[in-house]
Structure formats: structure tokens, C-alpha cells
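Can anyone check this?
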Amino acid sequence: MAFLFDTRKVRLSGLASELVVPEEMLQAVGPDALQRQFARTPYAVSFWSEGKTFILVTLHVLYGDASADRVPELKAIAEWMADWARDINAYDHNLIALGDFNIDRSGDALYEAFTSTGLTVPGDLLNLPRTIFSDPAKPALAKFYDQIAWFTTGNRAPALSLEYLQGGNFDFTKAALRARNLTRTQLSWRISDHYPLWVAFSTRD
């Protein structure tokens, strides 16, 4: 896992860590409770730009044998993020979650678990295809594995002090398929089967 950034605009602000679940959280009971550490430990790094600090937290949820297997990790990261957001608010830090959360579709049980503590996906990203195998003619079958989310005004955790501008995805398939004469399956193994998602913020007051 890595973060790529332009040091002319952004610099590290001192935090680079993996997130480990407290032991008391692992002792919770119930079918939706996390019983072990994250399969792939979330990675958090803080950055500074024009007087604003923001922390990016990335996670790749374990796919599992059934979609219900993903709920404990999704609920745990949502709860952990909300607790952390409340704790760091005094320092005007901004917390943003991003990664492959293996969410099948907007509004399903997995999406509800991920957004249960107020994490909000911007409207620009809600209906964008996430994989290169998405069929525009069959939107009901679209997968929404990847997400970028943060807490917004009115939710239980502090909102960002950054101004959200816009977001989207990047379709790299046209150029890559044409240049290499590859099938989508071949391309998925050489580059990715996911479209990169992006969001833009303003750091100016």
C-alpha cells in the first residue's frame, strides 16, 4: 500500500501507521461483531496543505465466502473512524476513508454497515461504475466495491473543514486496450479490474 503525492503542493504532517483494533472491541458479541483483527490492516497517513491537515485511511475488506462475511469489518471501520474523528476534531484534522470495501451495491446491507456511523459517499460517485466489467445496459448488476467517504455536517462525527469540489472515476481501458490489443480480462491482470476513483477538495478558507 502506498500514497503518491506532489511535494510541491502537499507534505507529510507526521503520522504514518497501521490501525489495530482495541482488544475490547474484539470481545464484542453478535453476528455483526468483529472477532479478529482486520484481514488487511488499515493504513493511515496524514498530510498537510495550505494550513489544512487531512488523514487518509485506506482499507481492503476481506471478500469472504458470502457477503455477510464482510459486515463485521465494515461496521468496525465505520465505528473506529467515527471515534477517531471525534477525538481528533480539536486539532482540525480531516479524516477520509478510501479503498476497496467490497460493497456490492449502494443501499445494500454492506453499504448500510459502512455508512452506519455517518460516513458519506459524495453524490458524484454514487452511480459511477467501479469495475471494467460493468455493463452500462445492466446498472442493477453494477458492483460498488470501491468507495471514498467522510463525515458530513449533521452526522455523529465532525464534518470536514475542507470544501468538497467534485469527484469521478478514470476510464483507462480505451487507451490501454487499443495500445496493447488486449481483452478486458487480460487488462484486468496487467493493470486492474477497478477504475480509479478520485475526489477534489479546496484547502482555502
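Reply from J.R.: I decoded it. The chain has one domain: 11-202.
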